[in-house]
Amino acid sequence: MKSTPALDWLFGLQRFGMRPGLERVGALLAAEGLPAPGTRVVLVAGTNGKGSVARLVAAALTASGRRTGSFFSPHLERVGERVRVDGEESTTASLEDAVAAVRPAAERLGCTFFEVVTAAALHRFREEGVGWAVMEAGMGGRYDATNALDPVLAVITGVALDHQAVLGDTVEAIARDKAGVLRPGVPAVTGARGEALAAIASEAAALGAPLLALGRDFRVAVGRAGWDGVEATVAGSVAGLPLALRSPLVGAHQARNLAVASVASLVLGVEGEAVRDAFAHTAWPGRLERIDADRAWVLDGAHNPEAAAALAAALDELCAEPAALVVGVSRDKDLAGVLGPLVRRARLVVATRASSSPRAALPSELAASARRAGAAGAVREAPDAAAALGLARDLTREGDLVLVAGSLFLVGEVRSLLRGEAPEGRERWQ
Which pTM does this prediction carry? Predict the structure, then answer.
């Protein structure tokens, strides 16, 4: 393997943790002249669905002829997935060069892992002549490194309880933090509901940010949802609607993401035909992704209670009964909230952990939580992803459906193993 000293240094920064604030990243971007002048930025925040929405919006911009960069976190299998140009992930070499370029200023300023990778993404975009940058927030909104940028559009998908230790212990508090991506006079689109929508709408009104809300200004109806994707119609008062959409994304819950992403794309000036074409060809690995091999392996990064409930509902819609659930969850998550909707649906639960993640709950902790959550069948433990897959194979039959869920770090490792590839092997904190 080729030496990657800049990336090795970057991943080493994770051990110093996260430090809220925009001063360091602002100074880093200023020192590097980032983003490139004229770059139009779209900020995408939210608890769940923000990755899907960011990917869809970026695809629509590319389909409309705009050279578009997109930034995501975390990655599943390779760090280059975080930084894409017109949908193509960065090579290890190109990201190594980008990190090396911003490293001197980042070291001088004491920047964090996420601040550096944000700057490296913008450096890549400048090198590639990108005119549009769709940036997924890592956590929250107000103090996320991406929020040092000035957007032409802000998107907030949905809001639920997650990262309470950092963002607040109520949905309203978390929504107000995510509303930090709003700007005076800059249009915004949201899929939030209930008290989260009320908080975001209040912030938008105070700033004078025109807000389009799902369920109020536009709506979505699901026509069909199956393993081959979802069909939905988005209607409302937004110019360019109605739109009939088809997507390979699986699960009726993805219809809300399609609606938010389509309205965001229309607001950005993308024609409806480009939106339809882009969405029809845009998948998102690790989100209700089915890989048919010796078993029907279904991978989903349902890492918080709302995502786990959406996954459980999708399984019911698909009439899918897992023979086994392979699950790993970070120890700072609501274990009962994640496990509860899932463990009662499988005849076997294999509790494991992502080898790359020091944050992962121990298999013994997960197994105990699974039993308390009402696991319907046997609960077994496996020390890592490879062992968990072996155990699931041993205790199921060929053709059975095996669900792998929880931590995206675990999903990424399993996805590599199922495709006969070695996992990335780097320690993963964020």
Answer: 0.94
Strand, coil or helix: 398: coil
Euclidean distance between CA atoms 67 and 133, whole angstroms: 9
Name the nearest CA neighbour of 237 among 264, 216, 258, 208.
216
Phi, psi of 38 (to 5 degrees): 90, -5
**CA-CA distance, 183 to 172, in Å (whole number)?**
19
Q: Which residue intervals of 65-155 are DSSP H helices?
A: 92-109, 113-127
Separation CA 220–CA 244 (nearest Å): 10
Give 140's pLDDT tier (boundaries 50, 70, 90). Answer: confident
Strand order, beta sheet including 132-136: 88-89, 83-85, 68-71, 132-136, 40-45, 151-156, 188-190, 211-213
Helices 272-280 and 50-63: angle between axes, nearest 10 degrees: 120
Residues ≥6 apart with Cβ < 8 Å to 299: 285, 286, 288, 289, 290, 291, 404, 405, 411, 414, 415
- Per-residue pLDDT at 161: 56
As given in the structure block, the two tokens for residue 222 are 């699901």
Which of 291-315 are b and which e, b meaning 16 or more Cβ less than 10 Å from the residue's Cβ? beeebbbbbbbbbbbbbbbbbbebb
Place 279 in a pLDDT band, splitting at 50, 70 and 90: very high
Q: Are 120 and 102 in contact (CB under 8 A)?
A: yes
pLDDT of amino acid 169: 64
Residue 426 CB partners (closer than 8 Å, separation 6+) = 11, 79, 356
Displacement of CA 281 from its chain's centroid (Å): 18
CA-to-CA distance for 326 and 424, rounded, in angstroms?
A: 20
In what helix (H) or strand (E) does residue 212 lie, and over which residues does it extend?
A: strand 211-213
Q: Are 93 and 157 in contact (CB under 8 A)?
A: no
Q: Over the stretch 155-202, which tens digit does the pLDDT of each residue have?
A: 999 887 554 444 546 888 889 989 999 999 999 999 999 999 999 999
Give the single-character DSSP code of 88.
E
**DSSP letter string, 247-292:** ES--STTHHHHHHHHHHHHHHTT--HHHHHHHHHT---TTSSEEEE
Percent of the chain whose predicted confidence (pLDDT) is above 90 = 85
What is the Cα–Cα distance from 308 to 338, expressed in whole angstroms?
5
Considering the chain, what is the average pLDDT of its residues? 93
